[in-house]
Amino acid sequence: MDKYDQHYSAPSFWDKLKKHAGQAGKKVVYTALLAYYALENPKTPTKAKLTIYSALGYLILPIDLVPDFIPVVGFGDDLAALLLAVGQVATYINDEVRTNARNKMQDWFGTVSVDDRDIIEVEAEVVESARKSGDEAAAGKSN
C-alpha cells in the first residue's frame, strides 16, 4: 500500500468521490470519508496518516486491481483497501470524525438513517478493529 500514498491529494479525493459516490455506494463512500476525516484530525499520528494516504491514494488511482467501471465489483478492491486502513487507524476515528462523515453522506445521499446497513457494517469493522488494538496494547503493557 505504501506506493499509493504519493497519489493522494485532497482535491483529487473530493473529485473522485463526488463523481463516483452513487456508483461506489454508501459503504465505500462512508469508509473513505471516515479515513479522510481521521486524516484531518490533528490527534492522528503521522504513521496512521501514512496508512490513510495510501488507501486514499489507491482509491483515487484510475487504474487498480479491479477497474472501477465494472458494475457491482468495481469498487470492491477500493473498499478492501479502505477497510484495511480504517481498521489500522480505528482508534483515531472518534465521534467528530463520524459526525463529519455522516454529515457529508447526507449532503450526497440525502437522509442517512442510523439503521443504514452499510454504515452499520463499516462501524462494526471500526469498533472491532479498535477493540483489537486496545486488546493488543493491553497485552503489550502486561508483558
Can you describe what's shown?
69% of the residues lie in helices and 0% in strands. It has helices at 10-24, 26-40, 46-60, 76-88, 95-109, 117-142. The chain starts with 9 loop residues before the first helix and ends with a helix. Residues 138-143 have low confidence and may be disordered.
Q: What is the averaged pLDDT score? A: 84
**Discrete helix count:** 6
Helix content: 55-70%
Q: Which parts are unreliable, with pLDDT below 50 for 5 consecutive residues or more?
A: 138-143
Strand content: under 5%
In brief, what are we looking at here?
By secondary structure, the chain is mainly α. It is 69% helix and 0% strand.
List the helices and strands and how they pair.
Layout: H1 10-24, H2 26-40, H3 46-60, H4 76-88, H5 95-109, H6 117-142
Helix pairs in contact: 1-2, 1-3, 2-3, 2-4, 2-5, 2-6, 3-4, 4-6
